[in-house]
Each structure stands twice: as structure tokens, then as C-alpha cells.
Amino acid sequence: MDTMYLAASYLRMRARSLGQTVFRNVAGALTLEWIVIAVLLVAAAGIGAGLLDKAIRGEAKKLP
Fold it and tell me: pTM for the whole thing?
């Protein structure tokens, strides 16, 4: 599986889950700090996936 596809599907899943939680209010009121933490975690995962993908592709080109 492509790393970028995996990262994008994770982001889609988290956004969908957050949207369901906010609109159904299942877990109670979400505070702004939890939303900020979630956005930062998703952004860090996306950046990490991109860097890891680039590093792996760079090393794979060195293989015979």
C-alpha cells in the first residue's frame, strides 16, 4: 500500500469520526484544545508519512 494513500485514508477516517462526534455530541462537548490537539496529531502524521515515503524511495533508488 502506498504511504500517501494510507495517510490520506487515515485523515479521512479521523475527519469523519470527528464530524460524527461533533454533530451527534456522543462524547459530550469537545473543547477547542482537543480539536487543536487532534489537528496537530493528524498534521504530524501526514508530515511524517511524507518524510518516511521520501526517505524510503530515496534509499530504494540506491538498490541495484
Answer: 0.48
Q: How far, rounded to the nearest angstrom, does the alpha carbon of residue 52 sit from its chain's CA centroid? A: 14
pLDDT tens digits for range 33-64: 778 888 999 999 999 999 999 999 999 999 88
How is the chain split into domains, by residue range? Answer: 3-61
Max Cα-Cα span within the chain: 55
Dist CA 29 CA 22 (whole Å)? 8
Phi, psi of 2 (to 5 degrees): -75, 140
Look-up: residue for cell 490520506? 8
* Residue 27: pLDDT over 60: no
